[in-house]
């Protein structure tokens, strides 16, 4: 049984990949905290809407002539969240604030741990269902 083919596991894997990439970006920011003219970076936020919009649109299927068609349009565009400028810039042009980066790293770590625990729980539920034969 390949868990990678189940939608929930695909979504969790994509989130974990995003969190791993974000950890790398945060680490680079911290490593270059003293580099002149270095500008801190971050990834575009991972959203549920973006995760599901992988060029496939799921629409309702009318199995009876009296079924109503869906009211959802062809998909609106979500506004991209604007990341505010850092509130500190060093005299050498570096805008990395270590406290901010440490908060992001902690948030990233907690999110990764949450997704890992959710993954484990889902696997445990599947194992339980297989053992009980239901």
From TrEMBL:
Q: Where is this region: Disordered?
A: 54-95
Write out the entry's keywords from A to Z.
Bacterial flagellum, Cell projection, Cilium, Flagellum
Localization of this protein: Bacterial flagellum basal body
Q: Does the keyword Hydrolase apply?
A: no
According to its UniProt entry, the protein's GO biological process terms are: bacterial-type flagellum-dependent cell motility
| Principal location listed in the UniProt entry | other
The annotated regions of Polar residues compositional bias extend over 61-71
Can you tell which superkingdom this protein's organism belongs to? Answer: Bacteria
Segment forming the signal sequence: none
The UniProt entry's GO CC annotations, sorted and at most eight, read:
bacterial-type flagellum basal body, rod
Q: How does it assemble?
A: The basal body constitutes a major portion of the flagellar organelle and consists of a number of rings mounted on a central rod.
The UniProt function text for this chain reads: Structural component of flagellum, the bacterial motility apparatus. Part of the rod structure of flagellar basal body.
Q: Which family does it belong to?
A: Belongs to the flagella basal body rod proteins family.
Instruction: Indicate what this protein is called per its UniProt record.
Output: Flagellar basal body rod protein FlgB
Organism of this sequence: Azospirillum cavernae
């Amino acid at each position: 049984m390949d868990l990678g083919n189940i939608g929930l596991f695909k979504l969790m894997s994509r989130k974990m990949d995003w969190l791993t990439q974000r950890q790398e970006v945060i680490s680079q920011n911290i490593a270059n905290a003293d580099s002149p003219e270095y500008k801190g970076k971050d990834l575009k936020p991972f959203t549920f809407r973006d995760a599901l919009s992988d060029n496939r649109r799921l629409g309702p299927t009318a199995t009876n002539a009296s079924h109503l068609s869906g009211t959802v349009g062809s998909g609106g565009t979500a506004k991209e969240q604007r990341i505010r400028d850092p509130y500190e810039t060093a005299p050498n042009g570096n805008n990395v604030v270590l406290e901010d980066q440490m908060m992001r790293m902690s948030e990233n770590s907690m999110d990764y741990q949450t997704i890992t625990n959710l993954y484990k729980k889902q696997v445990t539920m599947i194992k339980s269902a297989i053992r009980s034969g239901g």
